Amino acid sequence: MKKKIYIVSFILIALYGGWYGFDHFNTKKIDFNTDVRPILNKNCLSCHGGVKQLGDLSFLFIDEAVKKKNESGQRIIVPGNAQKSVFIKRILSTDTEVRMPPEKDQLSQGDIDILVKWIDQGAKYDTHWAYKPINRTPKLPNIDKQIASTNIDQFVIKELEKKGLKPSVEAEKSSLIRRLCLDLTGLPPSIDEINEFMADTSEQAYENLVDRQLASPHFGERWASMWLDLARYADSNGYQKDKIRKEIWRYRDWVINAFNNDMPFDEFTIEQLAGDLLENPSYDQILATAFHRNTMTNDEGGTDDEEYRVAAVIDRLNTTFEVWQGTTMSCVQCHSHPYDPIKHDEFYELYGYFNNTKDNDNDKDSPLKVLYSPYQNKLKSALENEVNTLKEKGDTLSNEYQKKVAEFLAIEPGKVQVMVENPPDSSRTTRVFIKGNWLSHGDTVLPRTPAFLPAMNPDYPSNRLGLAKWLVDGKNPLTSRVIVNRFWEQLFGNGLVMTLGDFGTQGNKPTNKALLDYLAFQFEETYSWSMKSILKEIVLSSTYKQSSAVNPELLKVDPYNYLLARGPRHRLSAETIRDQALVISGLYNPKVYGPSVKPYQPEGVWNVIRHVDQWINSTTDDQYRRGVYTFWRRVSPYPSMISFDAPSREVCVSRRIRTNTPLQALVTMNDPVYVEASEALARRMMTEGGSDTQSQIKYGFKLAVMRDPDIRRLNELINLYDSTLGKYNSSDQNIQKGKISENTNAFKTMSLIANVILNLDEVIMKT
Amino acid sequence: MKIIKELHDQHQNMLNRRHFLKQGTLGIGAVALGSLMGCNPSINKQIITGSDNNYQPFVAKAKRIIFLHMAGAPSQLELFDYKPLLQKLDGKLCPDSLLAGKRFAFIQGVPEMLGPQFSFKQYGQSGTWVSDLLPNFSTVVDDVCFLKAMHTDEFNHAPAQLFMHTGSPRIGRPGFGSWVIYGLGSLNENLPGFVVLVSGESAPSGGKSLWGSGFLPSHYQGVELRSKGDPVLYVNNPKDISRDLRKDAIATINKINQQEYEDAGDPETLARIKQYELAFKMQMTVPEATDIESEPDYIKEMYGIQPGEVSFANNCLLARRLAERDVRFIQLYHRGWDSHGSNDFESLHGGFVERCNEVDKAMTALIVDLKQRGMLEDTLVVWGGEFGRTPMQENRGGISNKFKGRDHHGEAFTMWMTGGGIKTGMTFGETDEIGYSGISGRVHIHDLQATILNQLGIDHEQLTYHFQGRDFRLTDVAGNVVKDVLA
User: Fold this and answer.
1) Are strands B426-428 and B145-151 parallel, antiparallel or unpaired?
2) Which of B41, B40, B43, B58 is closest to B455 using CA atoms?
3) Is the pLDDT of residue A246 over 50?
4) Could you give the CA distance from residue A648 to residue A642 in angstroms, rounded to a whole number?
5) Can you give the residue ranges of every domain in chain B?
6) pLDDT tens digits along A601-646
7) Cβ–Cβ gap A569/B264 under 8 Å
8) Among residues 278-307 of chain B, which lie with CB inside 8 Å of chain A?
9) Alpha-carbon Rg of chain B, whole angstroms?
């Protein structure tokens, strides 16, 4: 049998060799990462990868594969000689029992061509792009400054030129201010802000607007929403009972505060992963560690606490690697990574970093620490100063003094779930779980970072703190790329790497790698991890400011706008849709920070779990606060948020997939929150919008879209107004003239118009 | 070209639905539908594979499924798995061999054995043993197939329910119905493809994660039809807005959106126009479909519905109405079966008997009604809990509970199926003399899932979704179709 195979293969090689020789003058240089790796991933790795290594051969660790011989002593790959490589022989064989990959059609001629050339050219292999260091001296493409004014534009236009495309014109000012405000603070601008911006014709107008937005206390609220999906933050602890985490909102406030203060991302990282291990940690630094206490706790009677402690630790490891490294670790729990060079044992070496905290899935959800939120601390010290000043004045009997003291005393701390490390003498031993089963223990391992990434500085402690520092000390090739890509996605709707949570070989390749690396470099080096600075550079680019209108031709060439020949256009997030309706209608309560709130929710939605808390609709101004403050219960998240693709926050979510469904239309038309917003907007239109209906309708439209409606849109709205008023009047004798009251037909009609405005595509979308 | 095609296919899993706008052969209508109701069958080939292989769903025996989940896990030993020997052992200490190396939820030390608490008789031509607690159901035993040696990996409610309905004991995977709609699309334009109906003490332990879409796009999640208030949240217009005015308002929204499309050229705007039209249709179809009061009296009587209440009987009748309207995946939960014996509600002679009374008439009526309408042939009905109960009396803290009751038990329990190409009048699988373990015909949860998918026309190994670096499927890395029960 073997002999036959050999002969057949030989003949084939000879035939192929002839053909190949003919084609040989075509000496395109083969690149391992772009040309060869995808073929191996698709066709070879399921048997010769991380999970299975049949014949003891894995193409994942390609350096080893190149040195390998088969059982007859022949080299699998002979660099420089494809014809002698068993690899190629097996691929070309006509005997289906011999040919690789088995039970499939032969590889395409194009793929074979690449593999043959790759070996003939010396079988050079290369590290996957994302694991290579970032270029510390990025070179700008040399594009005329007239065409590409900022560095970002240089990189973008270079790619556009390759495709023969040109960037779009700058968006209208009205569109630009809406886009920018929704992106940076998540709130639409007020009429005054619009007017101010429109009137400012100076060159600085736009940059001044950017600075004002970055300085807003609402900046942190908007960007916290992104981070809280990653942190799987919720106000309950998950699983069957899903008990309430009443005080965990202080962590949410920590995040908002950190964004508002532009905490450098390296500190932001270290404090959340290991604030408790810093020297003399501040209360805020301990509070930050609630990041990894957002894992779920199972309080169901009869569950094994150790089983769920293990699940939480695994979640911490997976989440850390998804958030900071864009690396999918969950595969490695059970076996070596099928596609990325991560070995099974390395999972448990990383697990070791997280396996030594005191929390153990107990019913008290401990350890807990009595803490104030950063904002509470700030408020407290401000009040303390005021009280002391009054005291010094001898003013202790005044009302003001009493009031301040009462306010001071009203600020209460709460017990927050935080990380607490076991002391060295009672630290846990980490063992490999065979096939990922927590009951089946293998060898003991010590904490260590995986070999495919730069080793940890030996001066760092071998614990969570060391791991956190390793992520952000400038040597790690992934962190800044992965994080800057997340910012880019928030602004443009797509990441430069589409797969935000997977920078491995199965993830998408960057659409503009030079730009990604430039941004990563800027973020890490130039701005020393300042999140506001990197965001500012991006939104100041002409790329960001382009009009988002698209013509059929461009749509055909680049349907998803990877090339960025137009501005971003996508549906607003669940929180922003809600916040925007509150602002436009004037209902919005701008209060920042504090415990989670329970805005209107229909009865019965929360009837999930017996005996655990109730949803009582807020009757105060709290019901009009931003979505980021809405109480987030894992087993029963707020319905309208879910309709607009917010996750339940049970696990880390890198990217919300945007859908477009009729259930969303039902929310913005009929959810009492939006009905109330429509009525409030109608009231605004009728009181602030001038005396005649037409100007009122125009005003409402402008509040929502930042510009006057054109005649076509205006006519549609006026027509609906007239016909609706006619219908109300003919069906209902209850016509009242004069003052606006809830019962007049004019008000009911205007409410419907307002509801239509809130449902327009250009309102639901960022344009 | 192949790489371009592959990249293109990848996007459809990651992006919004624009891809289908261009690809769907039925045009925008079919596509927009996909958003709510899952994808149109004509394009599901691409969805199932996400690549260019040739998988086609095969001809299905069942067009739809009604899954009656008894949340809390009813005792098989008091309903279907008749064990006279256990009666003889009643009150005796449990032998060590049953305890060694086992993990239980609550049993500690050495519990006592507990005999069957109710009498059994044989029924039908098949001579199937059923206890006295199900007088109605005992008349239809020849129409169903019993699986007596079901087993699961989990012995706590939430993980076991997640295991049954998502294939994994941890939160975060798509629900069974989400997988099915992802794979096959919806049969109906105006109703969700995956509907959930909840009755009993409260929602099941696993919470809404049981019908969440997990890592699939959120429009694949199950839509809960509520028995009180709006059947679908926000389906009803506010009081001052008549249907006629809503129609006018949507027409205006869509006309302005059409202008927006002409100005900005984004196909997403066209999809939104379609969604508003669909929302308007749903506003009409949902109230009509859920109006069980409109049924004739003899049908209402047959199910034993309780107008205005939240009840299993109401939901069974509603399930039949939804099945008639071609909702593909209809999931019922009825909670309150957790008979530990720790209090009257959680005891075999208390809450358990009440639950039996609540379900017996209605589930029987559902089978009879589907059969008389000729719908049983292509409607698969599945009944069961998330695990079984121990042959031992539960002894929390080492002391026998005050009331008669049994602990959680994953090694053996009974489920039944009917319709949709399943053999009838048969029992598959057998447990040992005391109903502790299956001794033949054992069926694991993943086997059950594979079998159900098979009846719906899906190869469970082919229906995958790429997430976090790997291809996931409902049956994880296991599951075999139980061929013996296929007609």
Assistant:
1) parallel
2) B58
3) yes
4) 8
5) 64-231+290-485
6) 988 788 655 557 889 999 999 999 999 999 999 888 899 998 898 9
7) yes
8) 278-279, 282-283
9) 24
- Phi, psi dihedral angles at B68 (to 5 degrees): -95, 100
Rg of chain A, C-alpha, whole Å: 30
Question: Is B400 exposed, middle or buried (CB count within 10 Å of its CB: 0-12, 13-18, 19+)?
Answer: middle
A209 HSE (CA, 13 A, CB side): 30
CA atoms within 13 A on the CB side of B12: 27
Tokens of residue A383, six digits: 């009040």
Give the Cα separation of B76 and B388 in Å (integer).
6
Asked whether B253 and B272 are in contact (CB, 8 A), the reply is no
Take residue B384 and report the two structure tokens written for it: 């069961």
A368 membership: H or E segment, kind and range: strand A368-371
Nearest to B219 among A300, A607, A659 (CB): A659
Q: Quote the pTM value.
A: 0.81
- Cα–Cα distance, A181 to A171 (Å, whole number): 14
Closest CB to A549: pick one of B246, B265, B279.
Answer: B265
* Closest to B274 in 3D by CA, of A661, A717, A664, A668: A661
User: Measured between alpha carbons, how far is B309 from A1 in angstroms, rounded to an integer?
Assistant: 74
Question: Residue A160's pLDDT is what?
Answer: 96
The answer to whether residue B98 neighbours chain A at the CB level (below 8 Å) is no
Which CATH class, in words, describes the domain spanning B64-231+290-485? alpha beta
Q: How far apart are CA A96 and CA A99, in angstroms?
A: 5
> A724 and B235 in contact by Cβ < 8 A?
no
Q: Do A604 and B226 touch (CB under 8 A)?
A: yes
Rounded to an integer, the average pLDDT of A53-63 is 78
Cross-chain CB nearest to B172 (options A328, A504, A650): A650
What are the tokens at A178? Answer: 């809406």
DSSP structure class, residue A590: -
For the question of an ipTM over 0.90, the answer is no
- Phi/psi of residue A351, each to 5°? -55, -35
CB B17 within 8 A of CB A660: yes
- Helix (H/G/I), strand (E/B), else coil: A269: helix
Dihedral of the CA atoms A73, A78, A81, A82 (nearest 10)? 90
Which positions ≥6 away from B246 have C-beta within 8 Å?
A669, B237, B280, B283
pLDDT tens, residue by residue, A257-299:
999 999 999 999 999 999 999 999 999 999 999 999 999 988 8
Put simply, whether B409 touches A (Cβ < 8 Å) is no
Average model confidence (pLDDT) for chain A? Answer: 90
User: For chain A, what's the residue count?
Assistant: 767
Find how far residue A525's CA is from the centre of its chain. 22
SS (HEC) of chain B: CHHHHHHHHHHHHHCCCHHHHHHCCCHHHHHHHHHHHCCCHHHHHHHHHCCCCCCCCCCCCCCEEEEEEEECCCCHHHCCCCCHHHHHHCCCECCHHHCCCCCCCCECCCCEECCCCCCEEEECCCCEEEECCCCCHHHHHHHCEEEEEEECCCCCHHHHHHHHHHCCCCCCCCCHHHHHHHHHCCCCCCCCCEEEEEEECCCCCCHHHHHCCCCCCHHHCCEECCCCCCCCCCCCCCCCCCHHHHHHHHHHHHHHHHHHHHHHCCHHHHHHHHHHHHHHHHHHHHHHHCCHHHCCHHHHHHHCCCCCCCCHHHHHHHHHHHHHCCCCEEEEEEECCCCCCCCCCCCCCCHHHHHHHHHHHHHHHHHHHHHHCCCHHHEEEEEECCCEEEEEECCECCCCCCCCCEEEECCCEEEEEECCCECCCEEECEECCCCCCEEECCEEHHHHHHHHHHHCCCCCCCCCEEECCEEECCCCCCCCCCHHHEC
Q: Which of A340, A635, A660 sits opposite B208 (nearest CB)?
A: A635
Q: How many CB atoms lie within 10 A of CB A204?
A: 9
